[in-house]
């Protein structure tokens, strides 16, 4: 039996409350459908135990963090999906319109590029021309936050993504 799937109710509640608090403090909303949300959160917890990182429960993870960095929750595709479809791919995060009952969660097309296109690690912003700076420029791959400093921040001040979710632009 896979021990990663054995989640104690106390563990779940602690994780859920922290996620809810972090989500709200960053200005995001969790899906109001409690059953769906709880299952997705269990998936995050299982993936964290299994792989050592919270791979999105709606996608297949390789188990290699560097290959899955774009699908560590919150994934790189959350904000564009919220903007275009009012929910992220798995519908853990939703818009105010969904929470308010004005819109419903519907299927979302996959934005994640095929594996052969992800291998380069280059995103569209890599081609962005920037003036010469005395510090490197770091971009959060989740929300687009930019900062010029020696190293990326430990946690994105906007979306709370961890430092490995930053890419060096210059």
Topology:
Blueprint: H1 9-25, E1 29-30, H2 34-51, H3 65-68, H4 78-85, E2 93-94, H5 96-99, H6 115-118, E3 137-140, E4 146-148, E5 166-168
Antiparallel strand pairs: 1-2, 3-4, 3-5
What does this structure look like?
It is a single chain. The protein is an alpha+beta fold. The protein folds into two domains: 3-111, Alpha-Beta Complex (Ferredoxin Thioredoxin Reductase), CATH 3.90.460; 124-168, Rubrerythrin, domain 2 (Single Sheet). Helix content is 32%, strand content 8%. The strands form two sheets. It has a three-stranded antiparallel sheet with strand order 4-3-5, with no helix packed on it. A two-stranded antiparallel ribbon has the order 1-2. Strand 3 and strand 4 (146-148) form a beta hairpin. The longest helix is centred in the first third of the chain and has 18 residues, at 34-51. The chain is globular. The model is unreliable at 120-130 (pLDDT under 50).
